[in-house]
User: What shape does this take?
Amino acid sequence: MRTSVGEHLVWDKSMFIQPLVPVGHSLFLSFLLAASPILVTLFVMGVLRRPAWQATLGGLLIGLVMAVGVWGLAAASISNGVVFSVLPVMWIALSALFLFNVAMKNGRFDAFRGWILRHVPNDRRIMLVVLGFCFSAALEGVAGFGTPVAITSALLIMLGFPALDALTYVLIFNSAPVAFGGLGIPVTVLGSITGLPADVLGATIGRQLTPFACLIPFYVMALYGGWRSIRQTWPVLLVAGGSFALTLLLVSGAGLYSLSNVLSSSVSLVVTILFLKLWKPEPDAAHAIDLSTVEQQEKTASAVPLWQGWIPWVTVIVVVIAWDALHVARIGAMPIHWPGLDKAVYISLYNAPYAAVWKFEPLGTGTAILVATLITALLTRTTLAQFGAALLTTLRQGWLAVVTVALTIGLAYLMNYSGMTYTLGYGISSAGMLFPLVSVFLGWIAVFLTGSDTSGNALFGNLQVAAAHQLSLDPVLFASANSSGGVMGKMISPQNITTGVSVTSLKGQEGVVLARTFRHSLVLTVSIGIVVVFQQFVLR
Assistant: This one.
């Protein structure tokens, strides 16, 4: 792999040329300095237990020092990342949070909880599977960006789960579905970045994640209730995980990656609820929900038919799918070539100029979710007072998440355009034949930084392809590994954790959540690496 620009290559002399090994010609030292912003962020959140915005601000400041003092660039890259963080990333998250708060204020959230309690066995372990896995995956399919974590963890808390436990379990559940979240946007971006067929990438990612989709319910149940709970609930764990995994494998393999998660989660949710009509676990008082409090709340709440609890969630799924099918997002969309950054940077690793184009989509997915919120408000006859209260609550809950995500993605763009991410990628790809095992950590790092598998694929997807070509490995497999490894970094991303804690009592305690999820993230990422090694050297 080349580390410098060849003498026969031509570039604009005004371009900034990314140095791959800027510190004393030492890849090891350069790698350590390039990793320092990430290490600082992890240390401040995970060890010092400081809020995510403080951790990411510390990482950004260190990154700025490194970018200016060692690599030699900062400038417009941070502003580009900040704008991208607002639109589309946080526009989607805030719109979905607004939908959640409207459902809270008009009583449909309580009605949904009541419907689940009436139609699902009174057992927290079953609730954990139905809500934390099946329902959360359905929300991930249309929204993503931390929204499923916030909504489903709030549901679990209302059913008696401690806030930290609820958030931890949902963060782990919110792994396998992420690669196809937002109607397959991560796969679409990966195909666009790498030039590889998106349908082939989707099928490969589906094969990589199928075993994890099936096993994740068992993994979380082991954390919650131990082996005893697994023995008592394994049939429903197998039905929920197996139906999701099988549908994911078939749909993604058929080239319909944009619908993979929506269909998989929908099938899993419906099949699991129907299965629970035929099979129920043995009653266990240790895991029973105290219905007295719930019934008292129902008596004091306004009378809302329980079936109406489904209106917000069915509405948002239908609207977003229709929005995508009709290509509404294309209306008014325009590319913005970022001033002072677009093609002003030369990527030494690729021997090519670096584009910086922000896609302005006023009618993107966030707007679709907002429209679904308005339709929900009309269908449920939400009063102006309730609507206004939901809006104020959303702004109060979301402003710190906006700041945190802006800092996080600003750091990601700074590292990307300065060349620090390419130094990290170059260092990891230098592992030679060990690259298949460690390449998944490229995606893991990218999603940790950006909070988005979509952004992670944009960050490192092409680097995986370049490294695979250099090592005579399958480029499709390793581009896909970037996405599959990235989903396991979602549970430790400051953006995801911050959005999740925004509706709980854990605001400001993101570091505590990170400490709980970090080891699980590492275990699952290493497991993905083993699957990729098996695919490369055994199945091919």
Summary: The longest helix spans residues 198-253. Residues 1-10 have pLDDT under 50 and may be disordered.
